[in-house]
């Protein structure tokens, strides 16, 4: 089994906390909220058998530095590209879930030569048509008001983040060690402020997605994976604008797909990424 090592990598003005394991073609994994790179803890060892797995903490989250600005998906895509540059990787298979899906999508749209294959999970992409049946959850608005959520939640960060972990799983829940690392990562007003800045940048992210898809198509081979609550909404958004798309909805699976149903996710990723190796 490949050893997972943690590194501090300068990229796009950040000090990125990144977990790296294995050797071979690069796989870049982008997490969401309230997660860190450890969302992928059950996925990395298997992928690292024949890939170099790169799993950073997103801008402002986990152990990555917390700038005041730059939480829109376009800047996060630039962060990802700069990290690949710093690690000497010209291209990668890229997977993004939740907050990590939009930057993965924009990286593939803007720099398709850097993305061999793309996996997007449990997210909706701005206001692209197809997701009209998916109602934005209440916390999108709560997080979006500057200064509100971090003030209201002061001293109760663990309870709040823990609630998301509980509703995001349907099987055995989040393993205690991973859960503890998530709760520690989101403790303190500074951590919450950075997390909620991602939501406050949603209007800019939506504008970037509209611009990227205006008259353009996603030409990178793409897989959309849904569970509960997103289901096939992401696949419906992608279908009209993507040249090569496959879609899957994993049954009996919560939002935290890599932790809740790694047994179902790993065959999908392994088969999809193997296709990239065969065409390389």
TrEMBL record:
<dbReference type="InterPro" id="IPR000639">
    <property type="entry name" value="Epox_hydrolase-like"/>
</dbReference>
<feature type="domain" description="AB hydrolase-1">
    <location>
        <begin position="25"/>
        <end position="261"/>
    </location>
</feature>
<protein>
    <submittedName>
        <fullName>Pimeloyl-ACP methyl ester carboxylesterase</fullName>
    </submittedName>
</protein>
<keyword id="KW-0378">Hydrolase</keyword>
<dbReference type="Pfam" id="PF00561">
    <property type="entry name" value="Abhydrolase_1"/>
</dbReference>
<dbReference type="GO" id="GO:0016787">
    <property type="term" value="F:hydrolase activity"/>
</dbReference>
<dbReference type="InterPro" id="IPR029058">
    <property type="entry name" value="AB_hydrolase_fold"/>
</dbReference>
<dbReference type="InterPro" id="IPR000073">
    <property type="entry name" value="AB_hydrolase_1"/>
</dbReference>
């Amino acid at each position: 089994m490949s050893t997972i090592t943690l590194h501090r990598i300068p990229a796009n003005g950040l000090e990125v906390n990144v977990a790296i394991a294995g050797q071979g073609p690069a796989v870049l994994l982008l997490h969401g909220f309230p997660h860190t790179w450890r969302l992928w803890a059950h996925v990395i060892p298997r992928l690292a058998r024949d890939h170099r797995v790169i799993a950073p903490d997103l801008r402002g989250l986990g152990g990555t530095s917390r700038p005041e600005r730059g939480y829109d998906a376009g800047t996060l895509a630039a962060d990802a590209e700069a990290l690949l540059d710093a690690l000497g990787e010209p291209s990668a298979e890229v997977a993004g879930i939740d907050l990590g899906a939009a930057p993965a999508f924009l990286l593939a749209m803007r720099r398709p030569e850097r993305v061999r294959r793309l996996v997007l999970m449990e997210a909706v992409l701005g206001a692209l048509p197809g997701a009209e049946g998916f109602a934005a959850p209440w916390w999108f608005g709560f997080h979006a008001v500057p200064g509100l959520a971090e003030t209201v939640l002061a001293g109760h960060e663990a309870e709040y983040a823990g609630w998301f972990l509980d509703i995001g799983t349907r099987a055995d829940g989040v393993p205690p060690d991973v859960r503890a690392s998530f709760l520690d990562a989101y403790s303190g007003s500074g951590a919450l402020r950075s997390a909620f800045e991602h939501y406050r940048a949603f209007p800019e992210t939506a504008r970037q997605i509209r611009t990227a898809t205006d008259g353009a198509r996603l030409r990178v081979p793409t897989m959309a994976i849904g569970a509960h609550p997103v289901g096939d909404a992401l696949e419906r958004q992608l279908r009209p604008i993507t040249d090569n798309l496959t879609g899957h909805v994993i049954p009996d699976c919560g939002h935290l797909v890599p932790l809740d149903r790694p047994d179902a996710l790993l065959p999908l990723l392994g088969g999809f990424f193997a296709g990239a190796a065969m065409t390389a």
